[in-house]
Amino acid sequence: MEAVLDNREKRGLAGTILAWDEALQPKGVTRAPLWKFTLWMGFWGVVALWGVYAAALCWIFGLNQTGMNDYYGFALWIWADLAVIALGGGAFFTGFLKYVLGHEKPLKYIVNYAVLIGFICYSSALLILAIDIGQPLRGWFIFWHANVHSMLTEVAFCLSCYFIVLTIEYFPNILENRVLSKVPFFRNLVKNFHGSMAVFAATGVFLSFFHQGSLGGLAGVLYGRPFAAREGVFIWPWTFFLFTWSAAAYGPCFTMLLTRIIEAVTKKKLVPDETMRFLAKVSGWMMGTYIIAKIIDTVYWAQVTAPGAGFSLSDFYASGPFYGYWFLALEIVIGGIIPAAVLLIPKARENRAIFTLALVLAVMGVCVNRWAMVVQTNAIPVLSFDKWAMYVPTWQEIATTILPVAYGVLLVSLSHRYLPLFPLEVGEKDGH
Amino acid sequence: MSEAEKTSVRHRRYGMVIDLDKCTGCGSCMVACMAENNVTARPDETDKKKSITWMRVYSFDNGKGFPEARTCFLPRPCMHCAGKGGHGHSPCVSVCPAVATDYSAETGIVSQIPTRCFGCRYCMAACPYHARYFNWFDPVYPKGMEKMLNPDVSLRMRGVVEKCSFCFHRYQKAMDKAFYEKRKELEEGEYQTACTQSCPSGAIAFGDLDDPKHAVYRLRQPVKGLYVFRLLERLGTEPKVYYTTRHEWIRKAADRTVNDEKTAG
After folding, report:
1. Among positive and negative, which fits the CA dihedral B93, B96, B101, B102?
2. Cα A209 to Cα B75: distance, rounded to the nearest angstrom
3. % of chain B surpassing 90 pLDDT
4. Least confidently predicted of A100-109, A116-125, A177-186
5. Chain B positions in Cβ-Cβ contact with residue A152 (cut-off 8 Å)
6. What DSSP string runs through A159-183?
7. Which residue among A134, A279, A306, A364 sits deepest, i.e. has the most Cβ atoms within 10 Å of its Cβ?
């Protein structure tokens, strides 16, 4: 680095920037030329700015900028919130497998990346929530005037705490940057962080278990909405457990899918096959058992819970302009049974194309589930003389929902370029 | 009698009985409610899904052609649900993360505090009656209108949820008057909602559902030829708004039925 600074005058500004870029990259890796990287970042930066502009409109002029209305108090943003948190479940479940159950060897190659994805998902969720509330400056009321009976209170507390845990888990990755790690204080700090990471991971698992469950409970306790309401154990409706289970099952699929994407973009092998096989197998078992539980839950709800409230299954699926039975099949069969079967059958998961397709279907499946629990729940009229309500998001909502995607791409790109994210790539044998 | 009992106010369970056979759908209850409670109206109200109507009159028919065609007008205020078991576990109250809405054991009224609400809209998602409304826009009152606003009712700002309060400010005024006159109890009629007062056909009755001296107590008793029901009884929300009608097709529409179950009454 000193050499870079000393040669600044000789190199000129462009040369200095290039030298800085090279100096910040991990040793021994090859990265795309800076101009290509800048173009890539510029594109996603513009997309992110578009989202920021839309978010600013909502903050300045209020939620009348959205397509939400008195029927759809919860809509696209809350769906996106629930979806990214489910997909970010890979972080807590990978941490659980590595630090709590002790599967150190296969997971050391992917845990940094899983933590980064989790960090992006949870910070995005908090950002969306900050835009979604009608009085953003009063957001702190949820902590100050907390109603302990509300599932949303539990979500807010756990979400905030887990975000802090994820920040602590992601922080050492930043300090391991080639330049930063030369500072002795940072080096020692990272060492200490690694020494106590199991505690943070275990805390994260505990927090994540509860808030994933509470997000399910959000819908399950709506006994005025028979589509979402579920009976359950003690104070928890079944959706509490189904949401935690599905996040643990589908979250790692999202991590693996993103790994596949980044491998395709960089044309490099970043995670060993052994790691992917292990995660796929665990995910397959989790998804398989989840989908069995989900089918049992659906049958019981359709046969007992819903009729008890005066509804038949056709009231939920066959009457609306959009929500046919196909929607149920999309969630359970195409987004659940099929990917679970692929991940559980060794021959199927060895096939790279089929395996990747299964990951795509799994991600789609959990997103459809969250959509049903948020948006379809509002669409179904409960009063018999009321009508199905339709909802069309405005461009402001769409742009704000795309904002976390752009933010995620930017952060993954930066992290991959400058941090030792994948131990396999930087030639580390022990990982962290 | 202890000192606390001497000064304590008897717990009431205020509610409504609405006779649908008397309701003509004139909408005066809606207008009275808006005027009494400073409900805003935008210059352009074409986007009905973002408008605010604490008291809304639904209209639906029996689906038959002339001459059997019949129409029902159903006024729908907030149901002030007592919730499962009648312990105040209303669908909206238990989900609000900041206790911006609460169930009063003293009156049975579900309150809403606009300055506490931060607009998460979870209560709206929880309410099966669509009785809760979000302020999508800044409140606008025509010039000079501010002189007509009711000083007893707070104005609501953009970004918070609001709903029918059974004109709770009138209860407070009536109680103040009663205390001034050294009384702890309100007589029937001392506390009335604006919609009850304005209904020209006398379709809306209001009072303590548990007090035999109040008309609503008698009206909600199912007697021969008079059928009483509540909206969505099966959900267990325990609404405190009762409806009466002699027409079975209206009673059938009040609740969801599976396999042609018989309706109450």
Report:
1. positive
2. 44
3. 70
4. A100-109
5. 95, 97, 120, 122
6. HHHHHHHHHHHHHHHHHTSTTGGGS
7. A279
Angle among Cα A150, B111, B73 to the nearest 5 degrees reads: 110
Q: Using the beta-carbon criterion (under 8 Å), do A224 and B128 form an inter-chain contact? A: yes
The model carries a pTM of 0.90
Residue closest to A25 by CA, chosen among A194, A168, A169, A176: A176
Nearest CA to A112 out of A275, A237, A248 is that of A275
Pairwise CA distance, residues B187 & B182, whole Å: 13
**Structure confidence by residue, pLDDT tens digits, B139-193:** 988 888 888 899 999 999 999 999 999 999 999 999 999 999 999 889 999 999 9
Tell me if B94 sits within 8 A of A221, measured CB to CB: yes
Instruction: Quickly list DSSP for B169-205.
Output: HHHHHHHHHHHHTT-SSPPTTTS--HHHHH-TT--EE
Residue that has been written with the tokens 């497998």 in this structure: A97
Give the minimum alpha-carbon distance from B241 to chain A in angstroms, rounded to a whole number: 15
CA separation for the pair A255, A94 (Å, rounded): 10
Kindly report the nearest CA distance between residue A407 and chain B, in angstroms: 24
| Exposed/middle/buried for residue A148 (C-beta within 10 Å: 0-12, 13-18, 19+) | exposed
Contact B120 A384 (CB under 8 A): no
Whether the Cβ atoms of residue A135 and residue B116 lie closer than 8 Å to each other: no
Picking from A70, A150, A309, the nearest residue to B49 by CB comes out as: A70
Token pair listed for B258:
């599976």
Distance from C-alpha of A292 to C-alpha of B164, rounded to nearest angstrom: 44
The pairing of strands B71-76 and B132-134 is unpaired
Spatial separation of the C-alpha atoms in residues A251 and B71, rounded to whole Å: 52
Both tokens of B25, joined, read 């759908």
Nearest Cβ partner for B91 among A74, A152, A224:
A224
Which residues of chain B does A62 touch, with a Cβ-Cβ cutoff of 8 Å?
136-138, 158-159
- The Cβ of residue A358 has, within 10 Å, a number of other Cβ atoms equal to 28
